[in-house]
Amino acid sequence: MFKKIIVVLAVLALIISCSGGKKEEMTPGKGLSLGLGNAPIFRVGPGKDSTGTQVYSFTYVQAAVVFDADGKITDLEVDELEVSTPNYDGASMPHFSGWPGSPEPNFTNHETEKVDSKAPTTVEAISAEVEGWKTKRDRGDSYGMNKTSDWWKQMDGWEKQLIGKTIDEAEAFYAKYTNDKNGRPLNPETKDAAEKAKYDALSDADKQIVADVRSGATMSINDAHGYVLKAIRDAWNKKKAIGG
Protein backbone atom coordinates (compact mmCIF):
# COMPACT_ATOMS: atom_id res chain seq x y z
CA MET A 1 0.00 0.00 0.00
CA PHE A 2 2.71 2.46 0.94
CA LYS A 3 5.33 1.87 -1.76
CA LYS A 4 6.12 5.56 -2.19
CA ILE A 5 6.67 5.99 1.56
CA ILE A 6 9.05 3.02 1.57
CA VAL A 7 11.02 4.56 -1.31
CA VAL A 8 11.39 7.82 0.63
CA LEU A 9 12.71 5.99 3.68
CA ALA A 10 15.10 3.96 1.52
CA VAL A 11 16.53 7.16 0.05
CA LEU A 12 16.97 8.55 3.55
CA ALA A 13 18.86 5.43 4.57
CA LEU A 14 21.15 5.82 1.53
CA ILE A 15 21.87 9.45 2.41
CA ILE A 16 22.74 8.44 5.97
CA SER A 17 25.07 5.66 4.82
CA CYS A 18 26.93 8.07 2.49
CA SER A 19 27.26 10.93 4.98
CA GLY A 20 30.62 12.35 5.94
CA GLY A 21 30.39 11.47 9.60
CA LYS A 22 29.19 14.75 11.09
CA LYS A 23 26.55 14.24 13.71
CA GLU A 24 24.03 16.57 12.08
CA GLU A 25 24.50 14.81 8.72
CA MET A 26 23.97 11.40 10.27
CA THR A 27 20.64 12.23 11.86
CA PRO A 28 18.20 10.06 9.92
CA GLY A 29 15.25 11.88 8.42
CA LYS A 30 16.29 15.22 9.90
CA GLY A 31 13.29 17.55 9.80
CA LEU A 32 10.94 14.91 8.42
CA SER A 33 8.03 13.31 10.21
CA LEU A 34 5.67 10.48 9.34
CA GLY A 35 2.01 10.22 10.25
CA LEU A 36 -0.55 7.49 9.74
CA GLY A 37 -4.04 8.96 9.86
CA ASN A 38 -7.50 7.50 9.48
CA ALA A 39 -11.07 8.66 9.05
CA PRO A 40 -14.15 6.37 9.23
CA ILE A 41 -17.57 7.22 7.78
CA PHE A 42 -20.89 5.33 7.86
CA ARG A 43 -23.11 5.71 4.82
CA VAL A 44 -26.79 5.09 4.14
CA GLY A 45 -26.26 3.61 0.71
CA PRO A 46 -25.20 3.20 -2.01
CA GLY A 47 -28.83 2.83 -3.07
CA LYS A 48 -31.28 0.02 -2.39
CA ASP A 49 -31.51 -3.56 -3.59
CA SER A 50 -34.05 -4.98 -6.06
CA THR A 51 -36.60 -5.48 -3.26
CA GLY A 52 -36.33 -1.88 -2.10
CA THR A 53 -34.30 -2.80 0.99
CA GLN A 54 -31.71 -0.21 1.98
CA VAL A 55 -28.00 -0.86 1.37
CA TYR A 56 -25.58 0.30 4.07
CA SER A 57 -21.83 0.70 3.97
CA PHE A 58 -18.83 2.18 5.74
CA THR A 59 -15.54 3.52 4.43
CA TYR A 60 -12.32 3.58 6.43
CA VAL A 61 -9.70 5.93 4.98
CA GLN A 62 -6.01 5.59 5.81
CA ALA A 63 -3.35 8.12 4.85
CA ALA A 64 0.40 7.64 5.26
CA VAL A 65 1.99 11.08 5.05
CA VAL A 66 5.56 12.37 5.21
CA PHE A 67 5.87 16.01 6.30
CA ASP A 68 8.96 18.20 6.05
CA ALA A 69 10.25 20.62 8.68
CA ASP A 70 7.85 23.31 7.43
CA GLY A 71 4.85 21.00 7.72
CA LYS A 72 4.53 20.52 3.96
CA ILE A 73 3.48 17.15 2.56
CA THR A 74 6.49 15.62 0.81
CA ASP A 75 4.97 12.20 0.19
CA LEU A 76 1.49 10.80 0.52
CA GLU A 77 -0.31 7.50 0.03
CA VAL A 78 -4.05 7.13 0.60
CA ASP A 79 -6.16 3.99 0.54
CA GLU A 80 -9.71 3.18 1.58
CA LEU A 81 -11.57 0.10 2.74
CA GLU A 82 -15.23 0.25 1.76
CA VAL A 83 -17.55 -2.49 3.06
CA SER A 84 -21.27 -2.87 2.36
CA THR A 85 -24.17 -5.04 3.32
CA PRO A 86 -24.45 -8.10 1.03
CA ASN A 87 -27.45 -6.76 -0.87
CA TYR A 88 -25.28 -4.30 -2.80
CA ASP A 89 -24.98 -5.34 -6.44
CA GLY A 90 -21.31 -4.49 -7.07
CA ALA A 91 -19.27 -7.66 -7.55
CA SER A 92 -15.96 -6.29 -6.24
CA MET A 93 -17.43 -4.65 -3.13
CA PRO A 94 -16.36 -6.25 0.18
CA HIS A 95 -19.38 -7.40 2.22
CA PHE A 96 -20.22 -7.86 5.86
CA SER A 97 -23.37 -9.89 6.47
CA GLY A 98 -23.45 -9.56 10.26
CA TRP A 99 -22.22 -11.38 13.34
CA PRO A 100 -22.57 -15.16 13.39
CA GLY A 101 -26.11 -16.16 14.29
CA SER A 102 -27.67 -12.82 13.38
CA PRO A 103 -30.66 -12.74 10.97
CA GLU A 104 -29.60 -13.51 7.42
CA PRO A 105 -29.79 -10.39 5.21
CA ASN A 106 -30.67 -10.16 1.51
CA PHE A 107 -27.98 -11.30 -0.90
CA THR A 108 -27.82 -9.74 -4.37
CA ASN A 109 -26.71 -11.94 -7.26
CA HIS A 110 -24.00 -9.92 -9.01
CA GLU A 111 -24.82 -11.37 -12.42
CA THR A 112 -28.53 -10.58 -12.35
CA GLU A 113 -28.26 -7.67 -9.90
CA LYS A 114 -31.34 -9.09 -8.19
CA VAL A 115 -31.85 -10.39 -4.67
CA ASP A 116 -32.20 -14.16 -5.04
CA SER A 117 -31.19 -15.55 -1.63
CA LYS A 118 -30.14 -14.81 1.93
CA ALA A 119 -26.52 -14.32 2.97
CA PRO A 120 -25.42 -17.00 5.44
CA THR A 121 -24.21 -15.78 8.83
CA THR A 122 -22.30 -18.82 10.00
CA VAL A 123 -18.84 -18.39 11.52
CA GLU A 124 -17.32 -19.91 8.39
CA ALA A 125 -19.23 -17.64 6.00
CA ILE A 126 -18.45 -14.45 7.93
CA SER A 127 -14.79 -15.43 8.29
CA ALA A 128 -14.54 -15.94 4.54
CA GLU A 129 -16.15 -12.55 3.91
CA VAL A 130 -13.77 -10.66 6.17
CA GLU A 131 -10.67 -12.51 4.98
CA GLY A 132 -11.59 -11.61 1.41
CA TRP A 133 -11.89 -7.87 2.01
CA LYS A 134 -9.81 -5.70 -0.35
CA THR A 135 -9.09 -1.99 -0.22
CA LYS A 136 -9.96 0.26 -3.15
CA ARG A 137 -6.34 0.13 -4.33
CA ASP A 138 -6.36 -3.66 -4.00
CA ARG A 139 -9.56 -3.77 -6.08
CA GLY A 140 -7.68 -1.95 -8.81
CA ASP A 141 -9.36 -1.69 -12.19
CA SER A 142 -12.41 -3.58 -10.95
CA TYR A 143 -13.48 -0.48 -9.04
CA GLY A 144 -14.27 2.12 -11.67
CA MET A 145 -15.62 5.61 -11.17
CA ASN A 146 -18.81 5.97 -13.22
CA LYS A 147 -17.20 3.57 -15.73
CA THR A 148 -14.86 6.35 -16.89
CA SER A 149 -11.84 6.17 -14.59
CA ASP A 150 -10.47 3.94 -11.85
CA TRP A 151 -10.51 5.11 -8.25
CA TRP A 152 -6.80 4.53 -7.70
CA LYS A 153 -5.90 6.68 -10.72
CA GLN A 154 -8.04 9.54 -9.45
CA MET A 155 -6.59 9.19 -5.96
CA ASP A 156 -3.10 9.38 -7.45
CA GLY A 157 -4.21 12.57 -9.20
CA TRP A 158 -5.35 14.14 -5.94
CA GLU A 159 -2.17 13.08 -4.16
CA LYS A 160 -0.15 14.88 -6.85
CA GLN A 161 -2.11 18.08 -6.16
CA LEU A 162 -1.71 17.91 -2.37
CA ILE A 163 2.02 17.18 -2.24
CA GLY A 164 3.98 20.35 -1.46
CA LYS A 165 1.24 21.85 0.69
CA THR A 166 0.66 21.96 4.42
CA ILE A 167 -2.60 20.43 5.62
CA ASP A 168 -4.01 23.96 6.07
CA GLU A 169 -2.99 24.83 2.51
CA ALA A 170 -4.41 21.54 1.22
CA GLU A 171 -7.78 22.24 2.85
CA ALA A 172 -7.82 25.80 1.48
CA PHE A 173 -6.87 24.55 -1.99
CA TYR A 174 -9.67 22.02 -1.90
CA ALA A 175 -12.22 24.58 -0.76
CA LYS A 176 -11.22 27.00 -3.50
CA TYR A 177 -11.25 24.68 -6.49
CA THR A 178 -14.15 22.33 -5.76
CA ASN A 179 -17.94 22.48 -5.89
CA ASP A 180 -19.36 23.53 -2.51
CA LYS A 181 -22.25 21.07 -2.90
CA ASN A 182 -20.47 17.82 -3.71
CA GLY A 183 -16.74 18.44 -3.23
CA ARG A 184 -15.84 17.60 -6.83
CA PRO A 185 -13.43 19.75 -8.84
CA LEU A 186 -15.20 22.70 -10.42
CA ASN A 187 -16.68 21.92 -13.83
CA PRO A 188 -16.27 24.70 -16.42
CA GLU A 189 -19.29 23.33 -18.30
CA THR A 190 -21.59 23.11 -15.29
CA LYS A 191 -25.27 24.07 -15.51
CA ASP A 192 -25.40 24.71 -11.76
CA ALA A 193 -25.63 28.46 -11.11
CA ALA A 194 -23.66 28.46 -7.85
CA GLU A 195 -20.85 26.35 -9.26
CA LYS A 196 -20.72 28.47 -12.43
CA ALA A 197 -20.48 31.66 -10.39
CA LYS A 198 -17.65 30.23 -8.31
CA TYR A 199 -15.75 29.12 -11.41
CA ASP A 200 -16.33 32.37 -13.32
CA ALA A 201 -14.96 34.38 -10.37
CA LEU A 202 -11.59 32.64 -10.65
CA SER A 203 -8.61 34.24 -12.38
CA ASP A 204 -7.27 32.74 -15.59
CA ALA A 205 -4.39 31.26 -13.59
CA ASP A 206 -6.84 29.67 -11.15
CA LYS A 207 -8.90 28.27 -14.01
CA GLN A 208 -5.76 26.61 -15.32
CA ILE A 209 -5.30 25.00 -11.90
CA VAL A 210 -8.87 23.68 -12.12
CA ALA A 211 -8.03 22.19 -15.52
CA ASP A 212 -4.90 20.58 -14.05
CA VAL A 213 -6.87 19.09 -11.17
CA ARG A 214 -9.58 17.76 -13.49
CA SER A 215 -6.98 16.15 -15.75
CA GLY A 216 -6.18 13.78 -12.90
CA ALA A 217 -9.41 13.55 -10.91
CA THR A 218 -13.06 14.54 -10.97
CA MET A 219 -14.13 12.76 -7.77
CA SER A 220 -14.61 14.24 -4.34
CA ILE A 221 -12.22 13.36 -1.52
CA ASN A 222 -14.32 14.93 1.20
CA ASP A 223 -17.75 13.31 1.22
CA ALA A 224 -19.55 10.13 2.29
CA HIS A 225 -17.35 8.10 -0.07
CA GLY A 226 -14.35 8.90 2.14
CA TYR A 227 -12.97 11.81 4.17
CA VAL A 228 -9.44 11.93 2.80
CA LEU A 229 -8.58 15.41 4.06
CA LYS A 230 -9.69 14.41 7.54
CA ALA A 231 -7.36 11.40 7.40
CA ILE A 232 -4.45 13.63 6.32
CA ARG A 233 -5.23 16.04 9.15
CA ASP A 234 -5.23 13.06 11.53
CA ALA A 235 -1.83 12.00 10.16
CA TRP A 236 -0.52 15.50 10.87
CA ASN A 237 -1.84 15.37 14.41
CA LYS A 238 -0.22 11.95 14.98
CA LYS A 239 3.09 12.54 13.19
CA LYS A 240 6.36 11.27 14.63
CA ALA A 241 9.86 12.41 13.75
CA ILE A 242 11.57 9.99 11.38
CA GLY A 243 14.66 8.62 13.07
CA GLY A 244 14.46 11.28 15.76
What does this structure look like?
The chain has 244 residues and is α+β, with helices and mostly antiparallel strands. It has one domain. The protein is 34% helix and 25% strand. The protein has helices at residues 3-17, 123-131, 136-139, 151-162, 167-177, 193-200, 204-216, 228-238, and strands at 33-48, 54-67, 73-84, 106-109, 114-118, 144-145, 149-150, 222-223, 226-227, 240-241. The strands form four sheets. A four-stranded antiparallel beta sheet has the order 3-2-1-10. The chain has a two-stranded antiparallel ribbon with strand order 4-5. Strands 6-7 form a two-stranded antiparallel sheet. It is globular. It has eight helices and ten strands. The model is unreliable at 5-27 (pLDDT under 50).
Report helical residue fraction. Answer: 25-40%
Mean pLDDT: 88
The strands making up the biggest β-sheet line up spatially as 3-2-1-10
User: What's the β-strand tally?
Assistant: 10
Which percent band covers the strand fraction?
25-35%
**Continuous helix count:** 8
Total discrete domains: 1
The structural class is alpha+beta
In angstroms, what separates the terminal alpha carbons?
24 Å
Secondary-structure element sequence?
HEEEEEHHEEHHHHEEHE
Uncertain segments are 5-27
Radius of gyration from CA coordinates: 21 Å
Largest sheet: 4 strands, antiparallel
Q: Tell me, what's the shape?
A: globular
